[in-house]
Amino acid sequence: MIKERFKELSKNSYQNEKYVIYPAPSVESLLKESKELSHCVKTYIERYALAETSIYLMREVNDKDKSLITIEVKNNEI
Prior knowledge:
Number of strands: 4
Helix content: 25-40%
Largest sheet: 4 strands, antiparallel
Structural class: alpha+beta
Radius of gyration: 12 Å
Number of helices: 3
Order of helices and strands: HEEHHEE
Strand content: 15-25%
């Protein structure tokens, strides 16, 4: 279900010279994000899969593997 959410939300991806923002593509990406940033986004996996919330990952363009900021969008609010 998360892979389908990723496909659906990918239209909202954004990139400029410095940053890229894209939807979480997998359970593994959410687990990694939670570990690297020491926060609870891993507890949102089911809500994300069920389209109750949207989770986006923000990275620096030159270091896309390093977690920077996690963005939740719910009810059209960040």
